[in-house]
Specification:
- This protein is mainly alpha-helical.
- It is built from 6 helices and no strands.
- The radius of gyration is 21 Å and the shape is extended.
Length: 130
């Protein structure tokens, strides 16, 4: 989210949606591929390929990715003038989580979400092997 907030003034929701979808699409593509690789080459090969991919990705990100557009002389997408970014809050993260929970328990939507969540994490309910 930090990336989207720093680099995009417009269409942040779209960018966050694309990030979320890419995570799901990555699982859809790579998990079956890794399962196939395990069948042919063994789990050690998958661990090696995944580790090397992560290392190469970290090196590329470290070399080329910047935290803010101003670091490379650009403006965020959709901005016509430099945008001030808010400083990170200095609140206690534990207390912030509790305050968020306090707000959530007062909402009907919170309880609707909480009722459905255990069903999708229960392998007996969501599994086709039952």
């Amino acid at each position: 989210m930090k990336f989207a907030n720093h680099w995009f003034k417009e269409k942040r929701g779209l960018v966050v949606g694309v990030f979320s979808a890419s995570g799901a699409a990555g699982q859809l593509v790579f998990l079956p591929l890794f399962a196939q690789m395990i069948s042919f080459y063994g789990w050690q090969t998958v661990v090696l390929v995944t580790s090397l991919s992560a290392l190469i990705t970290m090196l590329l990100v470290g070399l080329f990715m910047r935290d803010k557009p101003s670091d490379v002389g650009l403006l965020p997408y959709g901005a016509t003038e430099p945008v001030e970014t808010a400083a990170a809050p200095h609140a206690n993260p534990f207390l912030s989580a509790l305050n968020g929970l306090k707000i959530g328990v007062r909402s009907k939507d919170f309880y609707i979400y909480c009722r459905g969540y255990p069903l999708c994490n229960n392998s007996r309910v969501c599994s086709s092997n039952t």
